[in-house]
Design brief:
Length: 482
């Protein structure tokens, strides 16, 4: 048959198929009305975007937590961002607040000297004292919070919100410590934008480790023979700049420019591998900072600050778990911590461990000891500062179509609390704050957590950070009134 005749042979087949499809849909899908509904019914809105990597899951049947398991109102009340005001008196009736400062909501503050009723020093005093001195104009630098964590923190959704709330309260201290080149594409920082070119190679304690164990204060390092990077502040300026680098034999040079003008050239050569720091000041402040290397250079990051205000360092790294910190060379890590001089060091990990640990596993039983080893390094480096263990959120997994809280969570939370108490750190139970067992499934239903039951939506991240901020400020106000 000629090509011009073939269309006439296809048409009856198409019409026969379409007619059969309509009849089948009518029979199996409830008739013509139901078929029309498929094309006219409104679709449900898409769930809110998740602040971090997510993974597809089967349709979820939520294993409901009791109605009483919802997160309590944060200490300090629902202060409006931008007002710079929180009030300890806004605590709602029935919320747990100890008379002796040992507990505000889910924040436990442990006495380090004496008994709770007459305690001379509490675990969180170093942070609260820094806030007090900052408010009086006597601190001498921005209040610094360094926050370690896994991908839940690394995306910067939660630290960014806390940064905003702290800077509303105390002023814009700048972005703080940032990676010149992040170790992973999900390691973000919402106060800046970054671009890089050249031969940068990244290493981190959880991904692409480096044999010498020198990762700086942020658990990551980057090296290049000839590399370029640009960091721009989203808003405001920074006037104090400090480069964190590795001094090493045959080290190259680093040139830093601020708003297009040369600021400093740093020679990274040294007799042996050791931490190096180079500081400079931009009197009028700058918004764009360029970093260029010549020769073999290895960097840990750059601090962009102002003399006053608050900063929140995001030191979260994707895939981090407790054992990842063993990759740090202890004396190097402690030297970097000491130099960073954070007023509060926070650590929030456990989401990754929860995926493979069971309640009776040996690693679970040893978890408090291993966690204590990490906290011991932090306390040794910053004995006068405060450290705070922030527990992971409730984690869930799919079983027979239901979202069930992971059985290991209570054991992990208890181990982290025990380690915090033993090493003089505060403890904030995010797990209890969000509602405890079953709350991950409930948060998923409310659009607060993603389909992996680990990474929070933007709404969930804001909710968590606001609760933490309110509780910290409630603790400070109780400190100030005692």
């Amino acid at each position: 048959m000629s090509a011009s005749d073939r269309s006439w042979t296809i048409a009856p087949a198409v019409l026969w198929f379409a007619g059969t499809l309509v009849v089948a849909l009518c029979v199996f899908d409830g008739g013509v009305g139901a078929l029309a509904d498929r094309f006219s019914a409104r679709r449900e809105p898409a769930p809110p975007p998740v602040a971090g990597p997510t993974f597809a899951a089967r349709p979820v049947v939520v294993a409901e937590a009791p109605d009483s398991s919802g997160p309590p109102t944060a200490a300090g009340g629902p202060a409006t961002p931008g007002t710079g005001k929180t009030h300890f008196s806004d605590l709602q009736p029935g919320q747990p607040v100890a008379a002796d400062r040992s507990k505000i909501m889910v924040l436990e503050d442990f006495c380090l000297d004496g008994m709770p009723a007459s305690c001379k020093r509490w675990a969180m005093d170093g942070f609260y004292r820094a806030i007090e001195q900052a408010k009086a104009g006597k601190l001498g630098h921005a209040v610094r919070i360094s926050w370690y964590g896994d991908s839940v923190i690394a995306t910067d959704a939660i630290p960014s919100r806390l940064r905003t709330r702290m800077q509303d309260e105390l002023g814009d201290g700048g972005p703080g410590f940032v990676y010149v080149v992040p170790p992973h594409r999900f390691c973000g920082h919402e106060a800046i934008t970054r671009a890089s070119a050249g031969s940068w190679v990244t290493h981190a304690i959880s991904i692409s480790q480096i044999p010498d164990g020198m990762y700086g204060v942020g658990g990551a390092t980057v090296e290049a023979d000839d590399g370029r990077a640009t960091i721009k502040l989203v808003s405001g300026t920074a006037s104090q700049v400090e480069l964190y680098y590795l001094s090493q034999p045959r080290g190259g040079k680093v040139t830093i420019s601020a708003d297009g003008k040369p600021l400093a050239t740093v020679d990274t050569r040294g007799q042996a591998k050791q931490p190096g720091f180079a500081a400079a000041t931009v009197q009028a402040g700058a918004r764009k900072f360029d970093v260029a290397t010549k020769g073999r250079v290895r960097l840990f990051g750059i601090d962009l600050e102002n003399p006053t205000g608050a900063v929140v360092d995001n030191l979260g790294v994707v895939s981090v778990n407790l054992k990842s910190f063993d990759a740090n060379k202890p004396e190097h890590f402690q030297a970097e911590l000491a130099h960073r001089a954070a007023d509060l060091v926070m650590i929030m990990i456990g989401a990754n461990e929860a995926q493979w640990l069971g309640p009776t596993d040996r690693d679970t039983k040893d978890y408090a000891t291993r966690f204590g080893k990490l906290l011991g390094q932090i306390r040794a480096a910053r004995p006068d500062a405060a450290c705070l263990v922030v527990s992971p959120t409730d984690q869930a997994e799919m079983k027979d179509g239901n979202a069930i809280s992971r059985a290991v969570m209570p054991a992990l939370i208890t181990a982290q609390r025990d380690a915090a108490s033993a090493h003089g750190c505060g403890f904030y139970s995010t797990y209890d704050w969000m509602g405890g067992k079953g709350s991950a499934a409930k948060w998923f239903r409310k659009g607060l957590v993603g389909t992996d039951f680990q990474h929070l939506s933007r709404k969930g991240a804001d909710h968590l950070a606001d609760g933490l901020f309110g509780t910290l400020m409630g603790g400070y106000q109780k400190y100030a009134t005692h």
